[in-house]
Amino acid sequence: MIQCFNNHRFTSRFEGDAPPRLLYSCRTEERHRGMPRVMHMHEDRAELVFITSGTGIHHIGGRQFETKKGDLLLYDAGVVHDETANPNESLNVYGIAVSGLRLPGRPLNHFTFENTTPVVAVGDRFEEFDQLLGMIHSHTVSDNRGDAEFANYLLRAAIVLIDDLLHIQAAAMQTEQKVMVERIQAFLDKHYMEEVTLAQIAEHLNINQYYMSHLFKEAMGFSPMQYVIRRRIGEAQNLLINTDASVTNIAVTVGYNNSNHFHAAFQKMVGMTPAKYRKYWTDINAE
């Protein structure tokens, strides 16, 4: 017999003195499968739904998700959600409600956090979740002594697994977002001297332009169009210092067909006109 020692130290992820509490567990029944559960929310609890078979459409927090077997749906407290099964097939689920859920960095009764979504695919852990939630449900409906306590311990195990999946999702999302920001930046660095619009950038990169702007500004500190202006003015500074090209020609080179717009943008960003900037550096180099 090989002994496997549990030597890993850990800190409980449940904050506060009281652990989360199981409010109820449910499993879909045939007569309920065709009835949609329309827009609603709960202020005093979080809910999780695990799809064991079938497909559906779920609206969670203003977003629509096409859901399927193996998806975990996480309904944070105060978040509006709506559930509709595919009429052509059965949607079978386990549902659990929990109160007193306190996880690090999150409001009371919230599963999700930044860079996570309320729908999580469990992947190759399907059997594990199916058995665990099945056990929670069977011990919840049982009247045997100790089953209620046991179901609550199982709930905490389920929450630990869910939280691990959310952290994996967040790491993957951060990597995906970093790659997208790099693609946006590469496109702008290549085309900043041209007349580009947000719509053109978004179309080229196959991304929603509002999401693109938010993502880029959050990462870079500038909107895409602010970045274009800064790149143009930065290149203009190089040309003013290192070449004898006229200010008008430099304006055209960096993407300004209107020299007045170039002068205004340059002065706003640098604090002086292009001509004064050139003279300033010419005088310094002559010393």
Automatic annotation (TrEMBL):
One of its GO terms (molecular function) is sequence-specific DNA binding. Keywords: DNA-binding, Transcription, Transcription regulation. PROSITE patterns: HTH_ARAC_FAMILY_1 (PS00041), HTH_ARAC_FAMILY_2 (PS01124). Residues 182-280 form the HTH araC/xylS-type domain. PANTHER family: ARAC-FAMILY TRANSCRIPTIONAL REGULATOR (PTHR43280), HTH-TYPE TRANSCRIPTIONAL ACTIVATOR RHAS (PTHR43280:SF28). This is AraC family transcriptional regulator. It comes from Anaerotalea alkaliphila.
